[in-house]
Amino acid sequence: MAEYKTKQRAQVIECLKQNKDKHMTVEMLMKYLASSGAEVGRATIYRTLDKLCREGIIRRYELTVDNSACYQYIDEQSDCSDHFHLKCERCGELIHLDCDHISDLSKHILTDHKFKVNNTKTVLYGLCEKCMKDEENN
Questions:
Q1: What CATH number belongs to 1-78?
Q2: How would you classify the pairing of strands 123-126 and 84-88?
Q3: In the chain, domain spans
Q4: Taking each helix axis from N to C terminus, what angle separates 2-18 and 26-35, rounded to the nearest 10 degrees?
Q5: pTM: predicted TM-score of the whole model, two decimal places
Q6: What is the pLDDT of residues 62-92, one digit of tens each?
């Protein structure tokens, strides 16, 4: 039985590694795993994600007040503490915002307001470029 759980953990990690440039929701993980022939239940995915977060293998991004989240594999070069995130309220895309102006804003807040922003949890909400174009065309 332990090997089965280890196999499922490995499948979840591999899915996140293969999609490390994306923010994966549990639904996305389930679809991806099912399409690759892996049978991993929702509860197992949640337990595995919790453990991987505690171990520092993946990062959890809170998306809404109802506690929904997405996850991303952390490789050696990724550091989300250096940037904010943009969340499209229509399609749900989560975008890394690597921008000197935002970095300057974080520095300003620290220096002038004595408050250190946790960028891993800082999400600005709005519409992505694609959804803005779709809205204009309707």
A1: 1.10.10.10
A2: parallel
A3: 1-78, 80-138
A4: 100
A5: 0.62
A6: 766 566 788 888 875 555 556 788 888 888 7
